[in-house]
Design brief:
Elements lengths: L7 E6 L2 E6 L6 E5 L3 E2 L15 E2 L3 E5 L6 E3 L4 E2 L4 E4 L5 E3 L2
Parallel strand pairs: 3-6, 4-7, 5-8, 6-9, 7-10
Antiparallel strand pairs: 1-2
Length: 95
């Protein structure tokens, strides 16, 4: 007999579909590549602003081409998530 962990389900990201085992948390890595506010979608490599309550499986890389990443709201990292600032890059926490 199969269990829920052996069932594959679709995972959609934009127009591309992938499959993962049911119950698994997808791993998502996105990069801050712009300059300025965290909440501007064009500052992110995939054009999507990540949540400020960063869930398990999200890996955020702060790597602005020029300037800094400005965060003006509290940010919470869940166990299994990460936030990495590339050497020589800067983050400003406004609150």
């Amino acid at each position: 007999t199969s269990t829920a962990t052996n069932i594959l389900e679709p995972v959609w990201s934009g127009y591309q579909g992938n499959f993962r085992r049911s119950g698994q948390v997808p791993e998502i890595t996105t990069r801050f590549i712009g300059s300025g506010n965290w909440n501007i979608s064009s500052n992110w490599s995939d054009g999507v602003v990540p949540p400020l309550n960063v869930p398990k499986g999200y890996h955020l890389v702060i790597d602005p081409a020029i300037g800094v990443c400005e965060i003006d709201s509290p940010i919470t990292l869940s166990p299994g998530s990460s936030l990495r600032v590339v050497a020589g890059k800067h983050v400003i926490l406004k609150k």
